[in-house]
């Protein structure tokens, strides 16, 4: 995708050939700043502090974290230590664990002296694979948007509601839920995106709105509680969101508030699609509500908010009474019964064990392989 007209990915190896560059997403939308990561610990901090976020991008960053660790010490012990440290940074997104297993599988059989260069090659390949997967999601999802536009008689605009940020900032490039939207916009379909602010971190208002604006996609930021009202009055043609983990039966974990949007969509007959790259599927897990660990983050994300003053200064202020406790749940789980369809790089399927296995016949339920 592009930033100020220039092609860019969200993560890259710097010109020195070993350090890792990222977009510092905590500075958006008020400032576009990049950061250089030189240690595995710096990568772990970037993930936990959400300088980078989004399930696919977290996985890519973790792969490069392993590279940085092995550059210093390529021993078996340090490989395991790096994987354990990085795995502990975010508990909900399955891509993190998947990427670390891919790195471990590629590196363990090699002699320690061969591991650093092999690690960088595998991490780069994982990034390229992510770009291809996400473009595939866009290609598979585009017909759904085209069909919705045709059902409207190709009149007015196609109104799409999304929650959180599942665009290119959440991946290496293209995004998941936003990939079909970008392709539809480029194909001339007059899409308009209702962007949930996505409290408490405001990833919709700060990140989704920013990247849609960079691409020229018409959009409107709304408060999180507006979606149901818009659906009741026919102002939402379809919903599409991403997911940080999808179970083998089609339950999806996404940013907190997604479940409520799915309920409203079901009540109003609005299609509710979930876009997911295949590494986001947890084939070992059936019941998402009971089985997916839900991250609880620092309450300050809820009690404090940052913004730009008229002077241009960016400040953080507290919006709750002193002493009031805050519970900050990062994700919720939407049961498969509320999902109209899953959109993957291989195609669109029902949110069910049968639907997923129809696209991934090589996967046997419960094997994790």
Automatic annotation (TrEMBL):
GO biological process: L-methionine salvage from methylthioadenosine
SUPFAM superfamilies xref list: NagB/RpiA/CoA transferase-like (SSF100950)
Chemical reaction(s) catalysed: 5-(methylsulfanyl)-alpha-D-ribose 1-phosphate = 5-(methylsulfanyl)-D-ribulose 1-phosphate
E.C. number(s) listed in UniProt: 5.3.1.23
Keywords: Amino-acid biosynthesis, Isomerase, Methionine biosynthesis
Active-site feature positions: 244
A GO term for molecular function: S-methyl-5-thioribose-1-phosphate isomerase activity
Metabolic or biological pathway, per its Swiss-Prot or TrEMBL entry: Amino-acid biosynthesis; L-methionine biosynthesis via salvage pathway; L-methionine from S-methyl-5-thio-alpha-D-ribose 1-phosphate: step 1/6
Pfam families hit by this protein: IF-2B
Site feature Transition state stabilizer, where: 164
Binding site for substrate: 53-55, 90, 203, 254-255
HAMAP family named among the record's database cross-references: Salvage_MtnA (MF_01678)
Role played: Catalyzes the interconversion of methylthioribose-1-phosphate (MTR-1-P) into methylthioribulose-1-phosphate (MTRu-1-P).
Annotated family: Belongs to the EIF-2B alpha/beta/delta subunits family. MtnA subfamily.
Name this polypeptide is given: Methylthioribose-1-phosphate isomerase
The organism of origin for this protein: Hyalangium minutum
Gene name of the encoded protein: mtnA
């Amino acid at each position: 995708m592009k930033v100020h007209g220039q092609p860019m990915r969200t993560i890259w190896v710097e010109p020195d050939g070993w350090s890792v560059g990222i977009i510092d997403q905590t500075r958006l939308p008020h400032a576009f700043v990049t950061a250089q990561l030189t240690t595995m610990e710096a990568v772990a901090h970037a993930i936990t502090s959400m300088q980078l976020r989004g399930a696919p991008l977290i996985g890519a960053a973790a792969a490069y974290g392993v590279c940085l660790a092995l550059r210093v010490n390529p021993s078996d012990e340090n490989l395991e230590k790096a994987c354990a440290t990085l795995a502990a940074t975010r508990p909900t997104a399955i891509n993190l664990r998947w990427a670390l297993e891919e790195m471990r599988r590629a590196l363990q059989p090699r002699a320690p002296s061969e591991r650093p260069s092999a690690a960088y090659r595998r991490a780069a390949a994982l990034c390229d694979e992510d770009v291809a997967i996400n473009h595939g999601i866009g290609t598979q999802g585009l017909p759904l948007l085209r069909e919705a536009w045709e059902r409207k008689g190709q009149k007015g605009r196609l109104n799409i509601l999304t929650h959180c940020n599942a665009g290119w900032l959440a991946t290496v490039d293209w995004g998941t839920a936003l990939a079909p939207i970008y392709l539809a916009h480029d194909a001339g379909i007059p899409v308009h995106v209702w962007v949930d602010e996505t409290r408490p971190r405001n990833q919709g208002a700060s990140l989704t709105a920013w990247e849609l604006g960079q691409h020229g996609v018409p959009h409107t930021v709304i408060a999180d509680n507006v979606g149901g009202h818009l659906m009741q009055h026919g102002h939402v043609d379809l919903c599409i969101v991403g997911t940080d983990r999808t179970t083998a039966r089609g339950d999806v974990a996404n940013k907190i508030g997604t479940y409520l949007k799915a309920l409203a969509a079901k009540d109003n007959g609005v299609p509710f699609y979930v876009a997911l790259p295949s590494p986001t599927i947890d084939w070992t897990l059936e019941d998402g509500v009971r089985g997916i660990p839900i991250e609880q983050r620092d309450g300050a994300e809820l009690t404090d908010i940052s913004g730009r003053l008229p002077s241009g200064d960016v400040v953080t202020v507290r919006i709750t009474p002193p002493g009031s406790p805050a519970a900050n749940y990062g994700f919720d789980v939407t049961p498969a019964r509320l999902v109209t369809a899953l959109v993957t790089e291989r195609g669109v399927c029902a949110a069910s064990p049968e639907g997923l296995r129809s696209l991934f016949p090589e996967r046997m339920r419960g094997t994790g392989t």
